[in-house]
């Protein structure tokens, strides 16, 4: 671990970012460019004291998880993320798991959607980032670990996952999710993360096994969705998507018809989400 170079790299990247780049107001009292340490710490999900010690060449060696969080918070490119890992004394993450790293362009768009339910997911159904209204709508989907990180796995292995959706839509969701996982498996092959998820579900879920044998093919990437939210009740939402060029990540944005009951409920959820944060 090169403490001096790590500290200098973090400082230069922090000073290169502007508040507008991460969806923060500049404010009249800001005298210099770049982000403050506390802002980077908040974006990275860590304490200001911990981040400050890194820039001051103090504290313990950051873990791979902390470095990955810093890479997301500082909106680093893949090459910059790899360099950060090397400075932190860790091996460069293997490229086959690059879908864990949110594309900086995706993050810039997400930063400008903070009043809208929006999220970035990879091709395995793992949520990488959410806006506060998306957390209010769907819950914090980034908290999961292991196989449960994948919505494909949670849907078939954890009955509680389905409570947010009306019962009459469950069969459609099951087929769509099985089809998406099948496409990921076809793309990534044996020994991949997709294969690990599929193998686990084939052993755990008869419903998934039946659908898998049918070789389902994905239809619409994100059709209109119906939710049964515990706080605001029924919602009917449209889902717009933006696919990253390498198709490893997708930005999902949920909207409602203006003036509809669902639109009013989304506004209410935005307030609820802000209060929770």
From TrEMBL:
It comes from the Bacteria. Pfam families: HTH_31, MLTR_LBD. GO terms for molecular function: DNA binding. Residues 34-81 form the HTH cro/C1-type domain. InterPro entries: Cro/C1-type_HTH (IPR001387), Lambda_DNA-bd_dom_sf (IPR010982), MLTR_LBD (IPR041413). PANTHER family: BLL4672 PROTEIN (PTHR35010:SF2), BLL4672 PROTEIN-RELATED (PTHR35010). This is Helix-turn-helix domain-containing protein. It comes from Micromonospora avicenniae.
């Amino acid at each position: 671990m090169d403490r001096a170079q790590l500290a200098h790299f973090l400082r230069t990247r922090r000073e290169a970012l502007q508040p507008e780049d991460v969806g923060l107001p500049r404010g009249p009292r800001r005298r210099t460019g770049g982000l403050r340490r506390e802002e980077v710490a908040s974006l990275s999900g860590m304490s200001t004291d911990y981040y400050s010690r890194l820039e001051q060449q103090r504290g313990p060696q950051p873990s791979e998880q902390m470095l990955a969080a810093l890479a997301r918070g500082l909106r680093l490119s893949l090459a910059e993320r790899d360099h950060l890992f090397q400075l932190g004394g860790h091996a460069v993450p293997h490229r086959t798991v690059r879908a864990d790293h949110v594309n900086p362009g995706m993050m810039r768009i997400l930063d400008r959607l903070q009043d809208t339910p929006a999220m970035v997911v990879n091709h395995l159904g793992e949520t990488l980032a959410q806006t506060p209204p998306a957390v209010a709508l769907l819950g914090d989907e980034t908290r999961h670990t292991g196989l449960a990180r994948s919505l494909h796995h949670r849907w078939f292995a954890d009955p509680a996952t389905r409570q947010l959706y009306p019962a009459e839509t469950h069969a459609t969701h099951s087929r769509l999710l099985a089809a998406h996982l099948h496409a990921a498996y076809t793309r990534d092959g044996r020994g991949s993360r997709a294969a690990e998820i599929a193998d686990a579900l084939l052993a755990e879920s008869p419903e998934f096994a039946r659908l898998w044998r049918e070789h389902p093919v994905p239809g619409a990437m994100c059709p209109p969705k119906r939710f049964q939210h515990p706080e605001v009740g029924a919602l009917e939402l449209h889902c717009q998507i933006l696919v990253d060029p390498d198709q490893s990540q997708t930005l999902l944005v949920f909207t409602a018809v203006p003036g509809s009951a669902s639109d009013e409920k989304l506004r209410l959820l935005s307030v609820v989400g802000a209060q929770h944060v």
